[in-house]
Amino acid sequence: MGAENRLGCPVPPEIHDTLAQWQSELPLLAKKHITRWKESLIKTVELHGFCDASERACGAIVYLRMTDTNGEVQTSLLTSKTKVAPIKRLTIPRVELCGVGTATSPHTTGI
After folding, report:
1. Model pLDDT for residues 49-74, shown as the tens digit of each residue
2. Is residue 37's pLDDT more than 70?
3. Which terminus of the chain faces fewer neighbouring Cβ atoms within 10 Å, N or C?
4. Residue 46 is inside which H or E element, if any?
């Protein structure tokens, strides 16, 4: 019999060790630094958005692509968002349109 989670539900033995290792490694994330902006002479700035969808959910990500005067390219994550697909069953193209709406929404991009 495997361990139980906080809700008292059993955790299958085949994934217990993997989950325990993942949980023990979470504090290492505090040591990880993700650069959001590099101060230099920016030549061009491009705003890129991507989205994807499935029967269950859709998601979007927006980031900047910047090129400095030396030709170096840097990308910076601006925001991301996920949504659960509506209860009413929709076609994949329709859910992907919801993803496009999520990617272009001012609430997602902050623009």
Report:
1. 888 888 788 888 888 898 888 888 88
2. no
3. N
4. strand 42-53
SS3 content of the chain, % helix, strand, coil (to 5): 30, 35, 35
Length of the chain: 111
The distance between the two most distant Cα atoms of the chain, rounded to a whole number of Å, is: 61
Q: What is the pTM of this model?
A: 0.51
**What gap in Å lies between CA 57 and CA 61, rounded to an integer?**
14
DSSP 32-96: --------S-EEEEEEEEEEEE-SSEEEEEEEEEEEETTS-EEEEEEEEEEEEPPSS---HHHHH
